[in-house]
Amino acid sequence: MYKFILRPIFFLFDPEQVHHFSFGMIRFFSAIGLGFLFRAIYNVNDKRLEREVFGLKFKNPVGLAAGFDKDARLYNQLSDFGFGFVEIGTLTPKPQDGNPKQRLFRLQADKAIINRMGFNNQGVAAAVERLKAKHKVLIGGNIGKNKVTPNENALDDYRICFNALYEHVDYFVVNVSSPNTPGLRELQDKEPLTALLRELMVLNGTKPQAKPLLLKIAPDLTDDQLLDIIQIVSDTKIDGVIATNTTISREGLQSPQALSKQQGGLSGKPLTQRSTEVIRFLAEKSNKAFPIIGVGGIHSAQDALEKLEAGADLVQLWTGFIYEGPALVKRINKAILKG
């Protein structure tokens, strides 16, 4: 139904407007008690799908990536579509509008999306208020810095978000890999990244119980940079890596240049192979020393299985969820069970 009826209609309109409209629809259907219908259609409940990763028990290994529910508006309702976990954010200390519109583009010929949203969100305090509701699913908190915060003060922003979210999320993700905040990716360099993660781990250690802390990395890192990431994970003792964020590469795109040359991060099918390569590299070169969440270009059950076989412990959807619909979550979980 989604791919043949809803998606063709949705794709006639501006992507960002459709996103807000879809949220309204999901909220409405859940409010009138139809969440059970989504659960009946899309949930696969089987103990064999459960995964214990960085000390957390996931009911299944398929999650919703950050960027879809930035402000923690619909995490419980979205879990009705069968996700084993939902990652909110990226959240920043202060609210910010993000980049000027239009900033979200569909590349239908490539089954891809380019976004230059720029960490648009209502700020961490607003998200915390929504997160006070009872959670039906494990929640990850993806944190970043405000655009106006210089890199030398970035740690302050990450600390603010960490402290605010600590009681309300199950794990944290440090986002230094978005291409849409000027200068942010400079924090991926070995020295500043090591310093940032060390300080956050110190802060984590002051809490009653440390929460898993993960790093989200770009797919555009070289092999030498990926080796640095492995060393940084070892040195800082963080709990894992999310591979990967969006790419700034435009190699091999079929869409018209008016779309493919748009600035921003590219996600979707063109990222499938590269994100899997990064997962495999990290897993093999580290001798599987830390958990990996695989994300990037998962548009089919086979795409997900390839990432799991490459070394991912869990996977996440974003662009594939938009193109393929919620049935993709069910297909992946059923394929995992067939094993």
Summarize the model shown.
Helices cover 40% and strands 17% of the residues. The chain has 339 residues and is an alpha/beta fold. Strands 3-4-7-8-9-10-12-13 form an 8-stranded parallel beta barrel, surrounded by 5 helices. A 3-stranded antiparallel beta sheet has the order 5-6-11.
Per-chain topology:
Elements: H1 2-10, H2 15-31, H3 35-42, E1 51-53, E2 56-58, E3 62-64, H4 75-79, E4 85-91, E5 104-107, E6 112-115, H5 124-131, E7 138-143, H6 154-165, E8 171-175, H7 190-205, E9 213-217, H8 223-236, E10 240-243, H9 257-260, E11 265-268, H10 272-285, E12 292-295, H11 301-310, E13 314-317, H12 319-324, H13 327-338
Parallel strand pairs: 3-4, 3-13, 4-7, 7-8, 8-9, 9-10, 10-12, 12-13
Antiparallel strand pairs: 1-2, 5-6, 6-11
What this model shows, in words?
- The protein is α/β, with parallel strands linked by helices.
- It has one domain: Alpha-Beta Barrel (TIM Barrel), CATH 3.20.20.70.
- It has 13 helices and 13 strands.
- It has helices at 2-10, 15-31, 35-42, 75-79, 124-131, 154-165, 190-205, 223-236, 257-260, 272-285, 301-310, 319-324, 327-338, and strands at residues 51-53, 56-58, 62-64, 85-91, 104-107, 112-115, 138-143, 171-175, 213-217, 240-243, 265-268, 292-295, 314-317.
- The strands form three sheets. It has an eight-stranded parallel barrel, surrounded by five helices. Strands 5-6-11 form a three-stranded antiparallel beta sheet. The protein has a two-stranded antiparallel sheet with strand order 1-2.
- A hairpin with a 2-residue loop joins strand 1 (51-53) and strand 2.
- Helix 6 (154-165) packs parallel to helix 7, helix 7 (190-205) packs parallel to helix 8 (223-236) and helix 11 (301-310) packs across helix 13 (327-338).
- The chain is globular, with a radius of gyration of 19 Å.
- The two termini are 27 Å apart.
- The model has no long low-confidence stretch (mean pLDDT 97).
- Monomer.
- It catalyses: (S)-dihydroorotate + a quinone = orotate + a quinol.
- Its main location: membrane.
- Residues 49-336 form the Dihydroorotate dehydrogenase catalytic domain.
- Pfam families: DHO_dh.
